[in-house]
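The material for today's practical consists of a large collection of protein records. Getting from the letters to the tokens is the skill we practise here. To make this concrete, we reproduce a full record directly below:
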Amino acid sequence: IADKQIKRVLETVDGVGEVSLTGARERQIRLLLDAEKLNAHSITISQVQRAVQNENVEIPGGRIIRGESELGVRTLGRIDAISQFDDIIVANVNNAPIRLSDLGRVEDSFAEPRTWNSIEGKQAVTLDVRRQSGTNTVAIIDAVKKKMADIQRTLPPGMSVRVIRDQSVFINASVNSLEEHLLFGSLLASLIVFLFIRNLRSVVIASLAIPTSVVATFTLLKVMDFTLNNMTLLALTLAVGIVFDDAIVVLENIVRYLEEKRFARREAAIVATREITLAVLATTLSLVIIFLPVAFMSGYARRYVNQ
């Protein structure tokens, strides 16, 4: 059921790259041969293997031409019952056919278990769904969950499907955390600016630096084909703080020119910004240089995964 009714259906979901199954007990036909009987008839294991393979095939059988139509013919040689294995002729010794039943017996059993899963003390089968490279993880997970809801209605009574690991939960939590940090960071930073500068207009100007920078950042992410992942979310969180710090520094210098040196607003903005540009640029570049090795680590990791 997990293979035919779930795994193969999930593989049809757009964006799903692979669905692996563990904990299953796959059916296996076992041929148990008697070594003494093989030696008595001078038959090797390889002969038995070739005989089973040759007697369990479907091969083309030619063509049938009838008027203007042409039909392909195939020879049905597949074994469809366990008892038919006993009738396979392995070899002829002294003009007498030696069948598989003369050399051993056939068992309809299961393959040797290599994996085993348990959920709450009950044996279970686990399906691991992997997305295609370059696709959206959250979108693929939502599509798989929607498909699973349809599959659940077709399962026999007594069987249930549970999600035991969901990466979209962590991703959505990371995005929500970023939004929360942006909001509270902006509010708290604006409050600090208001407490020290005591100018509501200055607070609004400094606060606008965050949404302006974030919009520009997402535009570059789209152009450069980056996605929202742990690296980009961390970079956004760090960059927002840097942007707001620079905005406060520049704004404070402009206010100083307005209040202490009595410059006109336009002249104060130009002169104060020009005076502090190199200092702000040097501070920002130093932070960029500090985090630059992380970018190379991300590039090496991406190339390693692709290989």
In short: Residues 265-306 form the longest helix (42 residues). Confidence is low (pLDDT under 50) at residues 303-307. The chain has ten helices and ten strands. Strands lie at 16-22, 27-33, 57-66, 69-77, 89-93, 96-99, 104-110, 117-119, 122-124, 126-131.
